[in-house]
Amino acid sequence: MARRTSARRTPNGRTSTAALAPGASLLRHLPLLAVLVFLIGTTACQETDPAPAPDDVADLVLVGGKVATVDPALGEVEAVAVRGNRIAAVGTDAEIRAMIGDDTEVVELDGRLVIPGFIEGHGHFMGLGEARLTLDLMETTSWEQVVAMVEEAAAEAAPGEWITGRGWHQERWDPAPENTFDGVPTHHAMSAVSPDNPVLLTHASGHGSFANAAALDESGITADTPDPSGGVIVRDAEGEPTGFLRQAAQNLARSAHSRFQEGMTPEEREERALRQVELAGEEALLHGITSFHDAGSNFATIERFRRLADEGALPVRLYVAVSGESLSSMREGLAEHRVVNHGGHFLTVRAVKGRADGALGTHGAWLLEPYADMPDTEGLPQTDPEDLQAQAQVAFDNDYQFNTHAIGDRGNRETLNIYETVLSANGRVVPDHRWRIEHAQHLDPDDIPRFAELGVIASMQAIHGTSDAPWIEPRLGEERARTGAYVWRSLIDSGATICNGTDVPVEPISPIASYYSSVSRMTRDGERFFPEQAMSRAEALESYTINCAFAGFHEDDLGTLTPGKLADLVVLDRDILTVEEADIPNTQVDLTIVDGEVRFRR
Predict the structure, then answer these.
(1) Closest Cα to residue 66, out of 13, 126, 7, 110?
(2) Residue 118: its pLDDT value, please?
(3) From CA 503, how far away is CA 467, in angstroms rounded?
(4) Cα separation of 299 and 283, whole Å?
């Protein structure tokens, strides 16, 4: 509980009682009664800090630090006050301390940095929760490690129980395994340690999976199984499946896994889903995420989100794109599921997610020219352009934003063409539509200016640039990599808006890691990946705050610490705008405040 004293404060904030000294010299000359009258009068006349009026009292203040408001009209200040769930005021330390009342919660910053809450611009919320419930393969650096983790899980699993995981990447394995096909070994070592348990391990990108023999059997995948449209069942020299399923081929195994999960009771499935929400929320708050752009959930999941929002049980704000629904289902259900600022601004559903291609890491990104390291392919388009345009039209007809996954230069060009076609009216593009391209990782130089010209937002994940850098040139060649790969500076200079993120669970959710990638372009090997494409520190902070607020139509309520906006703030233990660049990755989130409430405290 805050307490106030009646002593006068000097300009430097110290308490002074020197004003009493002159009166003290008169005491020996006055009778006792006169002394009492004098003391009463003197005390009444002394200069004091008046108690703030009720309308001026804050519920929460953060004082004694640096506040980066990200509002150009306000700049950097010393303190911030919160009343209810809104920013009440920002200003000098003295101005905000004047708003402290008896019940005000006071956070002494001691020089720390306050910024608007980070907005995860592209992630998979339920996928993040699921990743916490399965094998986490993000840090594995060898095939042997992956096999060992499966062996340990199989020792504890019941016969027939599926073992799932995510996060492996063949480019991180050192040394690389022998006898590989498409960069990945065959399933035999994994099948030997888990003969009674189907295993399905998803690639870090999400665009490929590895299945053991039991999972292949459950999926009905044999040497005679044809490749599905948009996918490849990778085979060895004898034509037998290796276990690696690229792109749409994963769906065969995922369907088999879904059949296994159908054996759970509805109560068990709901309990697991709620646990995913809880775990995802914990992970987000731990990293200073106050809003999360969910890059694709079906109607059933959206209905669960809506129930949780009604109960006030969503841990962070969600901006959800619809995916996993057929065209006919969307025609019937989009209007019903569209909500904006539902549950006290905790749930908005007003986007549709499309998919143009796959990922560069699995040779699935759709390119204009063949891969440099696999010249027999230009990638794997995931949706026929005519079908993608039909999805875009349904989104437009229902007043939904359309967000398309496009990574390769051909995928991005096709998507921009579709946007221009659907959005054109009376010879010009419909204004302020804010349609997005998710990832926009590799662009032909001719298409870079089209983002700003068409008003298309580049929803990019800076951490992908430094994570993928070691194998970008082998995939694309030096010239294509230099002129079109992760070209943040070129896009910003052309006038485009970049919304940052991590694509979690593809990458760790840390905005600090992605911020560092944005400004340094530093790879794990200590090399800078075309550093001329880096963002400034201010631009990187904007890309994680106001730009993503704009990308979700929330700039009036989120993204800056402007009085009147929702009170979503983060306290960092050091100033990422000024510390030595090499020190940025060491930054810790000390407090995460959502809706005026401290939801994480380190």
Answers:
(1) 110
(2) 98
(3) 12
(4) 24
- What's the angle, vertex CA 537, arms to CA 432 and CA 463, rounded to 5? 80
Coil vs helix vs strand at 225: coil
Distance, in Å, from the CA atom of 315 to the CA atom of 300, rounded to the nearest integer, reads: 19
Give the CA distances from residue 67 to residues 43, 326, 569, 572, 574, in Å, rounded to whole numbers and listed in that order: 37, 46, 10, 10, 12
pTM: 0.81
Q: Which residues are paired to 121 by β-bridges?
A: none
Q: State the alpha helices, DSSP H only, in 448-597.
A: 448-454, 462-476, 478-484, 488-493, 511-520, 537-543, 546-551
Model pLDDT, residue 177 = 84
Q: What is the pLDDT of residue 543?
A: 98
| pLDDT on residue 169 | 85
User: According to the model, what pLDDT value does residue 22 have?
Assistant: 29
Q: What is the DSSP string of 299-343?
A: HHHHHHHHHHHHTT--SSEEEEEE-S--HHHHHHHHHHH-EEEHH
For 12-42, how does the pLDDT look when each residue is reduced to its tens digit (9 = 90+)? 232 333 332 323 332 333 333 333 333 334 4
| CB 202, CB 165: distance < 8 Å | yes
Closest CA to 353 of 378, 380, 376, 382: 382
Q: Which helix (H) or strand (E) holds 233?
A: strand 231-235
Residue 578 CB contacts under 8 Å (≥ 6 apart), including other chains: none
Structure tokens at 16: 């002074």
The secondary element (H helix, E strand) that includes residue 231 is strand 231-235
Single-letter amino acid code for the residue at 140:
T
In angstroms, the Cα distances linking 522 to 101, 172, 255 are 47, 16, 39
Low-confidence ranges of the chain (pLDDT < 70): 1-54, 426
**pLDDT for res 16:** 32
According to DSSP, the β-strands at 231-235 and 241-247 are antiparallel
How many CB atoms lie under 10 A from the CB of residue 60? 22
For 397-424, the three-class secondary structure string (H helix, E strand, C coil) is HCCCEEEEEECCHHHHHHHHHHHHHHHE
Choose among 324, 307, 320, 343: nearest CA to 552. Answer: 320
The tokens of 519 are what? 């400004």
Q: What's the rounded Cα separation, in Å, for the pair 522 and 534? A: 10
DSSP state of 29: G
Give all domains of the chain, ordered by start, each with its CATH number: 8-115 (2.30.40.10), 124-261 (3.10.310.70)
- The DSSP letter of residue 184 is B
Query: CB-hemisphere CA count at 13 Å for 439?
Result: 31
Residue 94 is predicted with a pLDDT of: 97
Helices (H), 100-142: 125-133
pLDDT at 33: 37
